[in-house]
Amino acid sequence: MRRRGHPVRLLAAALMVMTVLPRWADVAAAAPVEQNPAQWPVSPAPSVSAAAAVVMDWWTGTVLHAKNAHVRRDPASTTKVLTALIALERGNLDDLVTISRRAAYTPGSTMHLKEGEVYSLHDLLYGLLLRSGNDAAVAIAEHIAGSVEEFAKLMNARAREIGAVNSHFTNPHGLTEPNHYSTAYDLALITREALRNPMFAKVVSLREASLTYEPQNRDVVMHNTNRLLEMLPGADGVKTGTTAAAGNCLIASATRDDHKLISVVLHARDRWSDSARLLEWGFDNFRMVYLARKDEVVIQAPVRRGMPGYVPLAVEGDLAVLLPRHEAGDLRIRLDIHRSLMAPVARGQVVGRVLAVQGEQVKAEAALYAAADVRRRSVWEGIRQGLQFLWPLHS
């Protein structure tokens, strides 16, 4: 059986580690810098048929390539990414939704809803994202906000929160209207936010889904309109869009080796080829380097008057840096911990930061939190620890 280290020895080891780490002032002056892939040693991005395009790193939000990325265009059914995000944030998937006449008679792509039928919000979400049902979009909007018009207000407010400031939405489905527009960049931002939602990420990754409409006692199979899921290794989303005004559009995502990329192509002659080539270029030229994983313990830090006299500190989220694939990186970790941890310390308490540093630049950071409780030691425990320090116990 493996013996645990004596608390005093563990404390001493922690102190030795801490003394070689930079103090708060050493790292506070170094601020994160905006990465500029145009200056990186990578091959030129492929030319594409799309009128506008973007490739974005999902984790950092860094734009790797852009073509007319901020030009306002008709987004068609890529609009439904935002509709789905709001539905997931504000609705309950078990909610039952009665289909209105307006929803049932919405033109364009459909999941064949009929007025007066009842569906779960769960099933409408699948119909929205897989079949691209315009009828499902209206039914969801009416359920969440009471009307299409009120839902559009929610869409615009949420878009602004995300940073999609060059977008304006008047409906939840993307059918052409004069004041309904977005940009390739804004759609990438919205998609990046939506992919943080596990349910959204799951649905858009499916090639097909078998559902039972329980109120109708009817089984259906839905096929995803996104053909890229079958064409590109690692493809896991997201949404097609097609209207006469918008042309052929596609928001796509793919993940390889824990590296996720998002691409957007608007008004493309060949949206499948454009998206595949852009994503392949992204994976060929960039990589994600993980220095610490979410909830990984990176140090045992000393705690004054604590019992025990140390606390494991863990990383609140992945600490990752985007780099050109053929660059060595020269990355290192610095810990930025409050000068003096004093008991009691509560599990989950944020006590500092862990920084990914390249040269003198901070490339990424994540919070450090206490992974265990540390109570305040009693007077007697303090005396006993002092005696053990003077006369160490041999094991």
Percentage of residues in helical conformation: 25-40%
Distance between the termini: 13 Å
| DSSP summary, beta strand count | 18
Tell me the radius of gyration.
Answer: 26 Å
Residue share in β-strands: 25-35%
Structural class label:
alpha+beta
Low-confidence stretches: 1-35
Tally of helical runs:
12
Overall geometry comes to globular
Main sheet summary? 5 strands, antiparallel
Mean pLDDT, all residues: 87
The ordered H/E elements are: HHEEHEHEHHHHHEEHEEEHEEEEEEEEEH
Short description:
This protein is α+β, with helices and mostly antiparallel strands. Helices cover 30% and strands 29% of the residues.
3D architecture notes:
The structure is a single chain. This protein is an alpha+beta fold and 395 residues long. Helices cover 30% and strands 29% of the residues. Strand 5 (208-213) and strand 6 form a beta hairpin. Helix 3 runs parallel beside helix 6. The longest helix is centred in the middle third of the chain and has 15 residues, at 148-162.
Chain-wise SSE layout:
Layout: H1 7-19, H2 24-28, E1 52-57, E2 63-67, H3 80-90, E3 96-98, H4 101-104, E4 118-120, H5 121-129, H6 134-145, H7 148-162, H8 184-194, H9 198-204, E5 208-213, E6 218-223, H10 228-231, E7 235-243, E8 247-256, E9 259-268, H11 271-285, E10 286-292, E11 297-302, E12 306-307, E13 310-315, E14 319-324, E15 331-337, E16 350-358, E17 361-370, E18 375-376, H12 379-390
Antiparallel strand pairs: 1-2, 1-9, 3-4, 5-6, 7-8, 8-9, 10-14, 11-13, 12-18, 13-17, 15-16, 16-17
Helix pairs in contact: 3-5, 3-6, 3-8, 5-6, 6-7
